[in-house]
Known about the structure:
Layout: H1 3-54, E1 61-62, E2 74-75, H2 76-80, H3 87-91, H4 105-108, E3 130-131, E4 133-136, H5 138-146, E5 178-182, E6 190-191, E7 194-195, E8 213-215, E9 239-244, E10 249-253, H6 258-265
Amino acid sequence: MTLVELLVVIAIIALLIALLLPAVQGVRESARRTQCGNHMRQACLGILAYEQSQGVLPPGWTKAASGQSMPKSHNVYTYILPHLEQLASHDRVDWNQNWNAPTNAAALSVELPIAVCPSAPGGRPFVADYAACELISSSAYSPLVSSKAITSSPTWTGTLRNGPRAAADIRDGLSNTWLFFEDAGRPQGWADGRPTGSTSVSGARWADVESYFHVHEQRAGKMQNVSNNNEIYSFHLGGATYGMGDGSVRFGSDTLDPEVFVSLFTGKAGDTTSGDW
């Protein structure tokens, strides 16, 4: 084999590798997205199992009202630990103390693999990439209402909130309403698929009462994947994973119409959307 022939063979091999690598990466990401959906589904089923046993949806988080001492500050994951095969940790929780009290350190310093998206960066101990989202803030919806991109809604609140809630209160139907959301990558800061350099985005730990968030940002009607600074954010190409109120999981595209987004977010606004989003 001459040198020219050897170089041709090397060039062909390099070309084949260049062609195959994106395909391999695509297959891997598809598998990770499927696994992410399975993790989200387990979390949602844990929430629904709590509802079956207690008669109400669990709190998205709990915080005492001003001037009161109870309830103490805890996150939804702590309430559903028995339904996530973490009964031992649940039984060790001191509910008379906040989640970050020294007496709760051992119980709540455990990994919850089902709370982590496999596409998100690693090396983040005790984190959750899925959380409750309480509200679409006026900073997000007001510009869209003003521009007539969406109609005004009688409510802008999501399903889980501070304190328990009856499932029957979700009058638009659990199968038509989002229950759990991605906010992946915390405490690392990310925006538009790139790290911001911040390592202090709040609410990263699964037990952190500040894990819940609001939708503050939108960009030309895009309500997700702008940043993960307490916003809906995923590491999946072109969209994010959503847990539905009936325990199913759906993938929402970045091109999701903002009117449909609001309909799926709100649980008792008297609006529903078709299942082809």
